[in-house]
Each structure stands twice: as structure tokens, then as C-alpha cells.
TrEMBL record:
The lineage of its organism: Bacteria, Bacillati, Bacillota, Bacilli, Lactobacillales. Belongs to the PEP-utilizing enzyme family. Residues 155-227 form the PEP-utilising enzyme mobile domain. This is Phosphoenolpyruvate-protein phosphotransferase. General (non sugar-specific) component of the phosphoenolpyruvate-dependent sugar phosphotransferase system (sugar PTS). This major carbohydrate active-transport system catalyzes the phosphorylation of incoming sugar substrates concomitantly with their translocation across the cell membrane. Enzyme I transfers the phosphoryl group from phosphoenolpyruvate (PEP) to the phosphoryl carrier protein (HPr). The active site is at residues 191, 504. It catalyses: L-histidyl-[protein] + phosphoenolpyruvate = N(pros)-phospho-L-histidyl-[protein] + pyruvate. It comes from the Bacteria. It comes from Lactobacillus bombicola. It is found in: Cytoplasm. PROSITE patterns: PEP_ENZYMES_2, PEP_ENZYMES_PHOS_SITE. Its cofactor is Mg(2+). Mg(2+) binds at residues 433, 457. The keyword Lipoprotein does not apply.
Length: 577
């Protein structure tokens, strides 16, 4: 039966394909005694055989889509599946205790995990605990007749359905087969939504119940333009979505004509429209959409997509690849923003009551200087290959900024003394995403080369509303006059101190926010690559003289975000008619 759900339009586009549930199955079991030990051993051996074949397939797929290095984790899984000490110990449990395979597997796996985790003087062996967990979960699933979802095994067109998608999940989606995704929770600023825009995948988030309402294989239509999701659409609905998709693609084709055009207003004022990226793999989208710079390279994905801390050399190569790929255009690389909702399996950070207000981003870097210094050395070395800006996230005080700059200067001096070339035009900047930093922007501007406003966090901290919490999502208001005043004050402080100011939050690519930001004189607009040509098209329609009063009205006359949405819509209607 056809059913329509309403969610949040997170990434433009239309997709119609069978649903693929990326949902962990229930792997609970009961310990039982078995009479037919040989039969139980045969059942166990079959689970090992099927698990091995599955991991081999995943490994081969990973080599193609992710590369040899990323596929190494699956080689480790195969070693465990073929390790007689591990598999033999389970067999022994089944024979001697006459218990079911599930119980023998669980008891043996826990012993191995405890042993590996206890090897505190051997980081490599400690990390094998995670491999044992993964392999054991796979064997358990086959013993219980359950299917483990894995994006790497998708080999036909699907729409991925999940409660939520982690950044790592999203980064592994193969665009050749994954045509879109839908989640129960999330908003436009969730990391999965941001990644969807980078991958140009239609996405709807925050449906609340999609995982409960749809079954594997059911046909599903995803409207990333207005947030509708239709389960089992009928023929007429499919035809309507096909027409809507064709119209959207035709609009994109018109925007693509602006790929090599400069970003200028109707009165020929020049600005920069840049792209946000997560990995070097995003560079194709950057170039395909005519980005004039990279305004944000989120380096935490280097850490999140790795099983260990990325080495200086690994980071250097990743940064160098992006810098060289921009052919002299500026690249702003943010130091790692780990913490909050971004975690590393191999970094055992302390639990915090409120991780968004805890040790994250620059705070974590300053408390773990060697990890920070490794990243800074890689960045400094890469700066010799193009125009680089290093940006510190989550700066709240002048003391934090000065300490980060001091560490950077020390590493630069060391490299220079060792004869390592460092870029001569390196810029150092900071994100403005804590309200205290926005208020003190006039002081910070004296100590950096640029600002980049991170609206996603600035809004959640200003409104005291977790951007990932659906219950308070109504408070995520980019156009709220209070937020706009902080943004305007930051831009004005930058210009008064002769530095440039950009924005790398999602608001930079928002149709309502863009005219207001243009009126404020924001210098650089960095966004998901797929938004660039749409915003460039919008910019060409606007004359700065026609919108010169918009900023003051939005900040100091309007009382609500809704007032500002109406203000912009009325103005745009007047200007385009």
C-alpha cells in the first residue's frame, strides 16, 4: 500500500529505487545445551564458511571503491576467520561444554577481546580487539540467520534507509548503486546530510519512522527537493517523479553553463564561491561545479576513515593532493574537529555529559599536542604546493588562538631549520562558531589573516539547541535576528581590521540567507559543491544597490526568523518580476 512520509529535504534531487535497510539486526541469543554435537559443529563450520566468502567479497569491493589501504581491515578479518586458535577454541567449547555455537562464539570472542585490550604496551594488538568484535558479529548473524547490512556489498540500485547515517557510512556509499537515502532522524546540518550534498545524492532526513514503515526491497521514491518520501509509489506517482527529476536535471544543465563564469553580481561586484569537502575524493565535484576555492577541508574524515591515527606522511599526501588539484586557487584546511558527534574507535576519549560543550576540536588538539603537531607539520609541508590557509576550529578565547599559533610557529621554524620548504603566502585563520568569539571578533581580527563563520555550530550555541535533536529543530534558525547580528558584527570587525571573512556553514548556500549575507558584504561563500552553481546563478540576478538596506532590516528591524524569510521572499519577488 502506498504511504507518504514527510521529512526534511536535505539534498536536492529525485530517486526511485528499492529500499536497502542499513539497520543492525537483533543478535541476542540464549545459551542452550546441545545433544547432537556433530550437527552443531557442522552448523558452526557453515557460518564460518559463509562469513569468509562474505568478507572476501567485501574486501574485493573495498579495493575497487576505497583502495588497497582501506581494504586491509578486511584482510585482518579474514586472518581471524582462518585462525585455528580462534576458531579452534570455539570448536573446543562446543565439544567439551556441549553448548550451542552462539554461546561458544560469544564466550571465546570475549576472552580474545579482553586479552587484546589488555595489551596496553602494544597499540597494534589492542586494535585487534575491534576486529574480533566485527568478525564475531558477522559469524553470530549467520548462526542466527540474520543479515548484516554493509554499504560495501551493495551491487544494485537502491535507496539506503537508516535510523541515522554516520559520516563514515555516508562516505562509503557507492554512487553507482546508491541513488539516495532516507533516515528517521537528522536535519539539514547533520553530517550525513552535508555528505549527501557533497556526493550529490538525493536525501530526506528526519522522517521519524521510515525504518519501521518500509521493508527491504520495497520500492521507494525520495524527493530531496521538498522532503517527501513515498513507499510503494503507484505508476502515476512514479511518472510524476520522473517528470520532476527531468525538470530538475534541466535546471542543473542551465546552471552548469555558469561553471567557468566568475561569481559576480548584476552590478559586477566580485565575490568568491567556494566548496566544502571532506576528503580528496570530493575534488571531482569541486571541479565539476566550478568552485573558485575550497573554503573548508574537514580533515577529521582522514581520522574517521582510518583504523589508526593517520601518519604525517599520509596527511601530507592528502593535503598536497587537494592543494595541487586547485591549481593555485586558495584551499582552507581546518585542523581536526573531533568530538561532539564525531568519534574515533581507536581513540578512547572520556565520556562527557555534554560532548558538544566539552573537549572537542581545538580544545582536543591543545590537550593532545603531539597529535596536533603531526597534523600541523603535514599542513606546513603541503603549503609549499599551493595557496593554503590553516584554520583553527572552535576558538573561544584569545589564549587558545595564541597557543595554537605558537605551536604552529614552532613547527614551522623546525621545518625551515631542517631545510623543508614551507609556503611563503601561508595564511592563518580561525572559525567563528562560538558566540563569545563573534562578540570579540574585533579583537580576534587583529591576530589572524581571515575569519570563516561556521553557522551550524554558531546557531546551535546561540540558540542553546542541539542541531541533531529533532525535538528542538525548530530553534535552528539561521535567519534569526540575534544570529544575524553576530554574523554582521563578525564581518564588520574583519573589514575594519583589513582581513577577509568567509562562511563555511550550510547557511552560505541557503536561498534565504544568501541575499542577506551579500548585503552584509561577506567575501567568501563556501558550501557543498552541488550548491555552487545555483548560488552563482542567484548572485548574477542581484544588484548590491537594490539590497544595500537588507542587512540592517534583517538584523535590527525584523523581530523573528519568519519575518526575515518573508522580507527576503518579498524582495526577491519584487526584483525578479
Amino acid at each position: 500500500m502506498t504511504k507518504t512520509l514527510k521529512g526534511i529535504a536535505a539534498s536536492d534531487g529525485i530517486a526511485v529505487a528499492p529500499a536497502y535497510l542499513l539497520v543492525e539486526p537483533d543478535l541476542s541469543f540464549s545459551k542452550t545445551n546441545v545433544g547432537d554435537v556433530e550437527g552443531e559443529l557442522a552448523r558452526y563450520h557453515e557460518a564460518i564458511k559463509v562469513s569468509t566468502a562474505e568478507v572476501e567479497k567485501i574486501r574485493d569491493s573495498a579495493k575497487t571503491s576505497l583502495g588497497e589501504e582501506e581494504a586491509q581491515v578486511f584482510e585482518a578479518h579474514l586472518m581471524i576467520l582462518n585462525d585455528p586458535e580462534f576458531t579452534g577454541a570455539i570448536e573446543t567449547e562446543i565439544k567439551e561444554q556441549k553448548i550451542n555455537s552462539e554461546a561458544a562464539l560469544d564466550e571465546t570472542a570475549q576472552k580474545f577481546i579482553t586479552i587484546f585490550e589488555g595489551m596496553t604496551d602494544n597499540e597494534y594488538m589492542q586494535q585487534r580487539a575491534a576486529d574480533v568484535r566485527d568478525v564475531s558479529k558477522r559469524i553470530m548473524a549467520h548462526l542466527l540467520g540474520k543479515e548484516l547490512p554493509n554499504p560495501a556489498t551493495i551491487d544494485h540500485e537502491v535507496v539506503v534507509v537508516a535510523h541515522d547515517l554516520t559520516p563514515s557510512d555516508t562516505a562509503q556509499l557507492n554512487k553507482n548503486f546508491v541513488k539516495g537515502f532516507v533516515t528517521d532522524i537528522g536535519g539539514r546540518t547533520a553530517h550525513s546530510a552535508i555528505m549527501a550534498r557533497s556526493l550529490e545524492l538525493p536525501a530526506v532526513v528526519g522522517t521519524e519512522s521510515i525504518t519501521a514503515d518500509v521493508e527491504n526491497g520495497q520500492n521507494i521514491a525520495v524527493d530531496g527537493l521538498n522532503g517527501d518520501v513515498v513507499i510503494e509509489p503507484d505508476a502515476d506517482q512514479i511518472a510524476t517523479y520522473q517528470q520532476k527529476s527531468e525538470a530538475f536535471l534541466a535546471q542543473k544543465a542551465e546552471w552548469e553553463k555558469l561553471k567557468n563564469e566568475p561569481s559576480v553580481t548584476a552590478d559586477n561586484k566580485k565575490f568568491i564561491i567556494a566548496a566544502n569537502i571532506g576528503t580528496p575524493n570530493d575534488m571531482q565535484g569541486v571541479n565539476d561545479n566550478g568552485a573558485e576555492a575550497i573554503g573548508l577541508y574537514r580533515t577529521e574524515f582522514l581520522y574517521m576513515d582510518s583504523k589508526n591515527f593517520p601518519t604525517e606522511e599520509e596527511q601530507f599526501e592528502a593535503y598536497k593532493e587537494v592543494i595541487e588539484g586547485m591549481n593555485g586557487k586558495q584551499v582552507i584546511i581546518r585542523t581536526m574537529d573531533i568530538g561532539g558527534d564525531k568519534h574515533l574507535d581507536y581513540w578512547d576519549l572520556p565520556e562527557e555529559m555534554n560532548p558538544f560543550l566539552g573537549v572537542r576540536a581545538i580544545r582536543l588538539s591543545l590537550q593532545n599536542e603531539e597529535i596536533f603537531r603531526t597534523q600541523l607539520r603535514a599542513l606546513l609541508r603541503a603549503s609549499a604546493y599551493g595557496k593554503l590557509g590553516i584554520m583553527f576550529p572552535m576558538i573561544g578565547t584569545l589564549g587558545e588562538l595564541r597557543k595554537a599559533k605558537s605551536i604552529l610557529a614552532t613547527e614551522k621554524d623546525k621545518l625551515t631549520a631542517a631545510g623543508v620548504k614551507v609556503g611563503s603566502d601561508l595564511q592563518v585563520g580561525m572559525m567563528i562558531e562560538i558566540p563569545a568569539a563573534a562578540v570579540m571578533a574585533d579583537q580576534f581580527a587583529k591576530e589572524v589573516d581571515f575569519f570563516s563563520i561556521g553557522t551550524n555550530d554558531l546557531i546551535q550555541y546561540s540558540m542553546a539547541a542541539d542541531r541533531g535533536n529533532d525535538n528542538v529543530s525548530y530553534l535552528y534558525q539561521p535567519a534569526n535576528p540575534a544570529v544575524l547580528r553576530l554574523i554582521k558584527h563578525t564581518i564588520d570587525a574583519a573589514h575594519e581590521n583589513n582581513i577577509w571573512c568567509g562562511m563555511c556553514g550550510e547557511a552560505a548556500g541557503d536561498n534565504i540567507m544568501f541575499p542577506i549575507l551579500l548585503s552584509m558584504g561577506l567575501d567568501e561563500y563556501s558550501m557543498s559543491a552541488t550548491s555552487i552553481l545555483r548560488i552563482r546563478s542567484l548572485m548574477k540576478k542581484l544588484n548590491t544597490e537594490d539590497i544595500k538596506d537588507l542587512a540592517n532590516q534583517a538584523c535590527f528591524v525584523s523581530e523573528t526568523a519568519e519575518d526575515n524569510e518573508k522580507l527576503v521572499n518579498d524582495l526577491m519577488s519584487k526584483l525578479t518580476n
